[in-house]
Amino acid sequence: MNPEVPNDIIERLQKEHIKITRQRRIIIGIVYEHQDHIDAEELYKILKKNKAGVSRATIYRTLDLLVSKRFVNKMDFGEGRSVYEFKLGQPHHDHMKCLRCGKVIEFNDHIIELRQNTICQNYRFLPSSHIMQIYGICYECRQKDKAKRENN
Amino acid sequence: MNPEVPNDIIERLQKEHIKITRQRRIIIGIVYEHQDHIDAEELYKILKKNKAGVSRATIYRTLDLLVSKRFVNKMDFGEGRSVYEFKLGQPHHDHMKCLRCGKVIEFNDHIIELRQNTICQNYRFLPSSHIMQIYGICYECRQKDKAKRENN
DNA sequence: GTCAGTGCAAACTTTTTGCACAGTA
DNA sequence: TACTGTGCAAAAAGTTTGCACTGAC
Questions:
Q1: How far is the CA of A21 from the C1' of C24 (A)?
Q2: pLDDT in tens, B12-45
Q3: Were B50 and a residue from A62, A132, B1, B146 both cysteine, which residue would form a disulfide, CB within 3.0 to 4.6 Å?
Q4: 3.30.200.20, 1.10.230.10, 1.10.10.10, 3.30.9.10: which CATH number matches A1-90?
Q5: Rounded to two decimals, what is the model's pTM?
Q6: Which residues contact A95 (CB under 8 A, 6 or more apart)?
Q7: Which nt is closest to the CA of B21, judged by C1'?
Q8: What order do you get walking across the sheet with A38-39 strand by strand?
Q9: Do B115 and A138 touch (CB under 8 A)?
C-alpha cells in the first residue's frame, strides 16, 4: 500500500514538526487521493483491505492531528459521524448536499465569502473558518422525479 | 413540571396529527423556553431534576419527531453530539461560535440568504434548508486577550 | 377500545484512552 | 537514544431499538 503523496506536502508536515511514520504517510495519501469526503471507518476498511496494518486508533489520532494543523477539513453532514477532506492547496469551498441521492456538490462563491467577512466585522468577531451547507434536491434527482410524474 | 407552551403551538402539532402526551408537552415546553441551544443530555438532566419522569428514549424520539415536522432545528457544532433549538415562528438565523468561550452568536443576513438562492439557481439545486456556522474568536474574548497582553 | 407512545435495558455506533511496545528523527 | 507514535482492547459517549406496558384520542 503506497498511495501518492506529493513531496511538498510531506515537507510541509515536517516543517510543522510532524513525524512522518509509515502509517501517517498512508493515511495522508488516501485522504489526499480520495475524491469524495471520507469517514474514519471507510478509511479503515480501505487500509484493512490492502493489509496496510493501521489501527483505528491511529486513524483517529492522525486525522485529528491533520485537522489541528489545518491540512484536512473535518465536517459533519448530520449523519452521526465525521467526514474528512484534504484541504491544503485546495481552494476553499462550501457544500450542497442532495437529500435524495446523498451527492455532495462543492461550490465556491466570492460574494458569500466577502459578505461573511463584513458580518464578522459588524459583530467584531474574528473568523478563522466557516461551514456552509445547503440541503435540498439536486438537478438530476428533480429530473428523475419529473420523468416519473410524467409517466404516471 | 409545567413549562409554558403557547396554545397555537399545541394546535399546530395537533394539526400534524401529533398526539400531545404529557412527556411531549414537557419536552416541547423546555425546548421552547430554553434560550440557548440544548442537547439531549442537558434536556434529560433538567427533566430528571424536576422529577418529570421522562426517559432518554422518549427525549430522542420526541426531538426526532419535532425535527421531522420542522418545529425544531437540529444542529451540530462538531462537539460529538447534536443540539436543538425551537424553530417555529422564529426568524431564520445562522451562527457564529467562539472557539475560546464557546458562546454562540445568532445572526441573520439578507444578502447571504439571497446569494444562496442565486447560487442554488446556478446549480439548478432546489434548497430546502441550510446551515452556516462561522468559527472564530468573539469580541469579548479578544478584549480579554488584549488586556492580558497589556498586563505582561 | 385501539393503536401509537413510553420506559427500561440492552445493543449499537462512533470516538477516545491507557498502557506496553515500536520506530522516527 | 529519546521520545513520540502505534496497536490493542477496553471504555466512554451518544443514540437507537425490542418489547411489554400505558394512555391519548
A1: 7
A2: 999 999 999 999 999 999 999 998 899 999 999 9
A3: B1
A4: 1.10.10.10
A5: 0.86
A6: A75, A77, A104, A105, A106, A107, A132, A133, A134
A7: D24
A8: A38-39, A82-86, A72-76
A9: no
